[in-house]
Automatic annotation (TrEMBL):
Its EC number is 2.5.1.145. Keywords: Cell membrane, Lipoprotein, Membrane, Transferase, Transmembrane, Transmembrane helix. This is Phosphatidylglycerol--prolipoprotein diacylglyceryl transferase. The lineage of its organism: Bacteria, Pseudomonadati, Ignavibacteriota, Ignavibacteria, Ignavibacteriales. It is an enzyme of class 2 (transferase). The gene is lgt. GO terms for molecular function: phosphatidylglycerol-prolipoprotein diacylglyceryl transferase activity. Coiled coil: none annotated. One of its GO terms (biological process) is lipoprotein biosynthetic process. The chain crosses the membrane at residues 24-45, 57-77, 97-114, 121-140, 174-193, 205-223, 235-254. Belongs to the Lgt family. A 1,2-diacyl-sn-glycero-3-phospho-(1'-sn-glycerol) binds at residue 141.
Length: 269
């Protein structure tokens, strides 16, 4: 049965030149934003929205994602340490980003964006942005795979990934499970958007995204190693606890009364 083992010994760095290095995680993280921007450009052109607003929206998304993900990691998974060493919260390059924190950061950023650009509906934007967020999540989990981090628990048999930078145990490739799942969610959301040509109840795709992504996240946590010490002995870990309200929010969005999409025609591109 040893033929079912994959020995994962990939260098997380693509190349290094002195103190400067390019890592797979950073490349995939950036690629998610680049492709996401192209998808949103396609959507804005198709619906005759002002593409110039995308430049501002991109920065709101980048800042919301990075700040939210970093604060989420620090405050959800190791609050005592980071509150005692607050300057280390700024040291993003040392690693430590949380997807639930990113979700909160993105929601906050889009809310602030709609306060500035009042002609945009919060749910209109979220319905379209979650298409790109699902794809970005798939890329980020691939980055985690290249980093040999967020690993799965041992499989207890002779199949699985052996993360040689970690130990010699066959483990569930939890990062790969999530990456594939989020890619499937992306394909579903984008296909639904194209089939309906952008005409559907506001909040619908956002609701589907929350339910699909965080339901999968809830269950995949059962085959993942805990991210921090205080999760040991808990019935549900922090990732599962944080997923529940997001799933409930998604169900609410799908079951609430219909609301029509707001048409934006401030300027044609």
């Amino acid at each position: 049965m040893r033929q079912w083992l994959i020995y994962w010994d990939v260098n997380p760095e693509i190349f290094k030149l002195g103190p400067f290095s390019i890592r797979w995680y950073g490349l995939l993280f950036a690629l998610g934003f680049i492709i996401g921007f192209q998808i949103m450009s396609y959507i804005f052109r198709k619906e005759k929205r002002n593409e110039d607003d995308l430049n501002d929206l991109l920065w709101y998304m980048i800042l919301g994602t990075v700040i939210g993900a970093r604060l989420g990691h620090c405050l959800f998974y190791n609050p005592s340490y980071y509150l005692s060493n607050p300057l280390e919260i700024l040291q993003v390059w040392k690693g430590g980003l949380a997807s639930h924190g990113a979700a909160i950061g993105i929601l906050t950023a889009i809310y602030l964006f709609t306060k500035k650009y009042k002609e945009y509906s919060f749910f209109w934007l979220m319905d379209r942005l979650v298409i790109t967020v699902a794809l970005g999540g798939s890329f980020i989990r691939l980055g985690n795979l290249f980093n040999s981090e967020i690993i799965g628990v041992p499989t207890g048999s002779d199949w699985g990934f052996v993360f040689t930078h970690v130990d010699s145990l066959p483990r569930h490739p939890a990062q790969l499970y999530e990456s594939i799942a989020y890619l499937i969610v992306f394909i579903f959301l984008f296909s639904y958007y194209k089939k309906k040509e952008g005409s559907f109840k506001e909040g619908l795709l956002f609701g589907y995204f929350l339910i699909l992504v965080f339901t999968f996240r809830f269950f995949v946590e059962f085959v993942k190693e805990n991210q921090t010490y205080f999760e040991e002995g808990m019935i549900l870990n922090m990732g599962q606890i944080l997923s529940v309200p997001l799933i409930i929010a998604g169900i609410y969005l799908l079951t609430r009364k219909n609301s029509k999409s707001i048409k934006i025609n401030r300027r044609n591109s």
